[in-house]
Amino acid sequence: ESIRLKPIRDVGGEHEMWETDWVELFREARPRGIIFLIDHSDVLKHKDALNFVMNMIEEEQGAQRNLQALLVLVNKSDLWLKTTTLDKVMTQYGNEVKRLNNQADRLGYKALIYSSSISTGVGVRDAMHAFFNLIRPTPR
Question: What does each C-alpha distance from 110 to 20, 67, 69, 122, 136 come to in angstroms?
Answer without folding.
Answer: 25, 9, 5, 22, 13
